Structures are given as structure tokens and as C-alpha cells.
């Protein structure tokens, strides 16, 4: 088995993700006095920026090899992402707006991905990425004005439908019907998740459910992105996705039990830290791909390459 074969191809970047996440947490706590909640805020703005960068077709560093191009994008994502709360404070927005903006911005990215990033067809860079960013910001602010925060409970199911289920059974139909039906499917499965929380005597906004949710996101992403659905990559849908969902749920319950019952950590605090790990998990894959296991450039646009 070579480094560029699964599971080493995915495990090695995950190890680097764990190291980067711990360093991010330690630097935030030691040098800036940030608690778990604020660390997660900075990390989520950072990973949202990375998602936006993923849609720029590696512009303007297409000719650079890894890891140089990846670290440039990583630095840009970190700087722009971390500046979000700072700029919001300057503009007079209270911390109460952090999570609504984050949640709604991710809905914007989700829409762009589900619809194949067709919004900016025909535009070149940097116009295309500027228009994508404008769409996300306008949508997020309008939603705050009308609804407040759109709960991000849909996000785990979005990851499952797009990256494990690979849009099955609507993967062959054209846009925009594909994107619309994908969100219908995401909504339906999200209702099942919500009823599952209620049956367990909790809800999405409680610390226990929040920790379970973010662990679920971690395992869905790690198995579908880093491990590239190994070892069931060649299995036909929907069996492949059901297998991935089953493994992700088992690993989620196992890690939740270890955190809450064995180590007896506070679910709210750990949940904030796990969002940092999830942010780095996504971002590493977006900007660095499978580096250092694979030295080639990462796939450019998740909306176009993981469908």
C-alpha cells in the first residue's frame, strides 16, 4: 500500500488536520483568551471562506504546485475568515449576530453547490467569486432580517446527500430541477433527524444534541471526503450511502459516549472545540487536497467534482 492509496491517503491528511486544529485552539486560548464558543465562531467563518475560495478555479495561483498554492489559499481563508467578527464589531453588530450570519452564509454556499455553481456561468475570475460572495452575503442578511437564523440542522444531511449519496436518485437530471429536488430530499431527511432528537428528549439547540450533531458532521466528512467513501467506493447507490451513513452514525455514538460518559467532558465546551476540528477538516481538503499523501492539486470546485 502506497501513501496515495486509501486508507493512508485519507488518514495522513486527517493527522495533519488534528495537529492544525489543536494548534488553532491553543493559540486562540493562550494568546487571545478565546473560549470554545468564540473559537468555533472564528473557525466557521474561516471554513466558509475556504468554501468560497473552492469556487474560484484556483485563481490566481493555477500554476503553483502543492503545497505552495494550498498554503496561500489557507492564509487567505484564515485572514478573511477571522476578520468577519472584527468587521462586524466595527460596524456595530453585537456577538448575537455571529451565529445567524454563519448559519445563513452556509445556506448560501449550500445552494451554490447543490445547483452546480451555475449562478456565475459565463463569468471569469475574479468576477465569478465576487458575485458568489455577494449572493451569499445578501441572502444571509435578508434571511436575518426576515427569519433570523436558519438553523443549520440541515447541514449534516446536506453533507450526506451531496458527498455520500452523490445526489442519488436525482443525479442524472439537469439543473435547476436537480438542485431543487436535492434540497427537497435534504429537507425530508432533516425532519427525520429532528424527530430523532425529539424522541431522545432533546433538540438541536441543546448542548448534548449540538455535540452529537457536530460529531456526526465530522464523521460524514472524514469518511466521504478524506477517505473518499473507502472501502465502499465502487458499491452502487443507495447501498453505498446507507453503508456510509451506518458507519458514520456508529462512530458518532461511540465518540459521543467516550466524550460524555467515559471522560465526562462538558458537551457544550467540547462541541465548540469539535467545530474547530470540522472547520480544519473541510479546509485542508479544499485548499490542500490529500497533501502530504498526494502532492497534486486538490479538486477545484466541490459543486462540480463531488456530484
TrEMBL record:
**Transmembrane residue ranges:** 12-32, 38-56, 68-91, 97-116, 128-146, 180-197, 209-227, 239-260, 272-289
**Source taxonomy lineage?**
Archaea, Methanobacteriati, Methanobacteriota, Stenosarchaea group, Methanomicrobia
**Does the record's keyword annotation contain Metal-binding?**
no
- This protein's source sits in the domain of life called Archaea
User: Which species?
Assistant: Methanoregula formicica (strain DSM 22288 / NBRC 105244 / SMSP)
Q: Which UniProt keywords apply?
A: Membrane, Transmembrane, Transmembrane helix
What is the official name of this protein in its record? Answer: Uncharacterized protein
